[in-house]
Amino acid sequence: MEEYGKHVLSIDGRKILKLEGVQHVGSFDEQEITLDTNMGFLKLKGEGMHITHLNLDEGSLVVEGFINALEYVEGRSAKGGKARGKGFINRILK
């Protein structure tokens, strides 16, 4: 199994989400937050969501609000477009 570093996600009462392993926050508003983690692209959906803590050096994030859904999406990146792949074409075009 591949080692990705620490990745911990906890939700307290659907009102506080704590995440370790954050690499980049793409976009955020009260209904949706998109971010890259060390385990892939993550999309959070909810109501009245606010980022109350963010430390990219430590990879930590705290979101408060009402969490409706979270989804890990393969092949995407919060930085826009496809995730940093290691396919043959991507290696050639570096």
Helix and strand arrangement:
Elements: E1 8-12, E2 16-20, E3 22-28, E4 32-37, E5 40-55, E6 60-73, H1 88-92
Antiparallel strand pairs: 1-2, 2-6, 3-4, 4-5, 5-6
Summed up, what is this model?
This protein has 94 residues and is mainly beta. The chain contains one helix and six strands; from the N terminus they run ββββββα. A six-stranded antiparallel beta sheet has the order 1-2-6-5-4-3, with no helix packed on it.
Number of helices: 1
Portion of residues within helices: under 10%
What's the mean pLDDT score?
Answer: 86
Beta-strand residue fraction: over 45%
Distance between the termini: 27 Å
Write up this protein.
This protein is mainly beta and 94 residues long. The protein has a single domain, classed as Sandwich (Immunoglobulin-like). Helix content is 5%, strand content 56%. It has 1 helix and 6 strands. The protein has a 6-stranded antiparallel beta sheet, with no helix packed on it. A hairpin with a 3-residue loop joins strand 3 and strand 4. The longest helix is centred in the last third of the chain and has 5 residues. 20% of the residues are buried. The mean pLDDT is 86.
